[in-house]
Amino acid sequence: MASKVYFTDFRTYGKESLPHKLQRLIRAAGIGDIEMNKQFVAIKIHFGEPGNLSYLRPQYARAVAEVVKEQGGLPFLTDCNTLYRGKRKNALDHLEAAAENGFNPATTGCQILIADGLKGTDEVLIDLPDGEYVKQAKVGRALMDADILISLNHFKGHEATGFGGALKNIGMGGGSRAGKMEQHNSGKPQVNQKKCVGCHGCERACGQDAVAFGPDGKARILEDKCVGCGRCLGACNFDAVYNANGHANEILDYKIAEYAAAICRGRPHFHISLIVDVSPQCDCHAENDAPILPNIGMLASFDPVALDEACADLCNAQQPLPGTLLWDAMARPDFTDHRDHFTNTAPVTDWHFTQIHAEKLGLGSREYELIRLK
Ligand code: SF4
Ligand code: SF4
After folding, report:
1. Which of 51, 214, 232, 285 is surrounded by the most beta carbons within 10 Å?
2. Residues 355, 262 share a domain
3. How far is the CA of 232 from the centre of ligand 1 (A)?
4. Are 281 and 336 members of one domain?
5. 210 near 226, Cβ under 8 Å?
6. Residue-number span of the structural domain to which 319 is assigned
7. Is-contact 157 168, C-beta < 8 A?
8. Are residues 212 and 290 in the same domain?
């Protein structure tokens, strides 16, 4: 059965602010049907790696928190620590990064909790009897302690999963450090020495010091240090970094779907995505390349699978923006058109795997009805 997905664009007609428009959207989508009185409500968000400017602004988080409080709920913003080194690898750094990017109780109207604690080890183990790749998900405790889950997601490209949508925000983002390791452990990349030009882009992207250079100036991956996060794949503009396990990204997609199912099941959940500043790579990067697509709008649904499907379809209906990574990729002589902006940007990805698997797990439907609000 088709799920309802509510959509509105970024037009304001000079009378309604975007945060107020977001509130109108989520009310229309039925957030008011969730009984929130005195319930803890986790708003799962990505605070953005410092240096990246495409993460969602705190004003959107505040807008959602205000609606939760109106309904009697007790909201908090949350995310888990990262697997790789960077500025969000433990709770202290993570809180500082959130503050640097403008998230604090004064700006968002609620507190911030790093879900998997100081060192990324405060986790809840969730049995997943129907998991094909994960039998016990390892999830940040605060995220699971919440009575209600709201995903507030920046919809953008991703170098390993095609796009970063609701399922990835919850599944990968909700994993503790061990959980992230489990999702990423399907393969470590290698460098095609013939293609490598020695530009050091992969080295700059790697948070693990896992890239070394030989006397010939070519990169190679140090397997003992590499955690398989895939950031170097997106950082290489010469397609020299590849995953020797041809199914690694596919398995990652399946695991993300299974983690998302483990995190959502058994409690009310609601999902919001904003297609804005559609950078080709994740907000985990300490920089954001130019958006590959125009700003499209805001979407909300009770169904994260339908929501991601609708976001992808809306993106694929747009023309790529000139002077971007996608535009450059399309101009290459060896370009193969996958008829999908995200796979064309990162040809090693196919986001459909996540969607198909999440639907199989009963997390939602890939069929949707798009309800447009002015
Ligand atoms: S980014 Fe690519 S081309 Fe540049 S050093 Fe790394 S593997 Fe080589
Ligand atoms: S996958 Fe690439 S970026 Fe990630 S740890 Fe390994 S070498 Fe570094």
Report:
1. 232
2. yes
3. 8
4. yes
5. yes
6. 3-186+246-372
7. no
8. no
**199, 203, 209, 242: which to mutate for ligand 1, most atoms within 8 A of CB?**
199
- Do both 37 and 144 map to the same domain? yes
State which amino acid sits at residue 213. F
Residues 6+ apart with CB under 8 A from 189: 221, 226, 228, 230, 232, 233, 241, 242, 243, 244
CB 28, CB 64: distance < 8 Å: no
Considering the domain architecture, whether residues 200 and 341 belong to the same structural domain is answered as no
CATH number, domain with residue 197: 3.30.70.20
The CA R_g of the chain, rounded to the nearest whole Å, is: 20
208 & 75 share domain: no
Residue 190 Cα to ligand 2 midpoint, Å, equals 9
Give the ligand at the shortest distance from the Cα of 236.
1
The per-residue pLDDT string of the chain (374 residues; one tens digit each, 9 = 90 and over) reads 899 999 999 999 988 999 999 999 999 999 999 999 999 999 999 999 999 999 999 999 999 999 999 999 999 999 999 887 689 989 999 999 999 999 999 999 999 999 999 988 899 999 999 999 999 999 999 999 999 999 999 999 999 999 999 999 999 999 998 899 889 877 788 999 999 999 999 999 888 899 999 999 999 999 899 887 777 877 888 879 887 776 788 999 999 999 999 999 999 999 999 999 999 999 999 999 999 999 999 999 999 999 999 999 999 999 999 999 999 999 999 999 999 999 999 998 999 999 999 999 999 999 999 999 99
Same domain, residue pair 97 and 173: yes
Q: How many domains, in total, are found in the chain?
A: 2
- For a substitution probing ligand 1, which of 159, 190, 200 has the most ligand atoms within 8 Å of its CB? 200
Return the ligand number nearest the Cα of 225.
2
We report the CATH number of the domain holding residue 38 as 3.40.50.11440
The pTM is what?
0.88
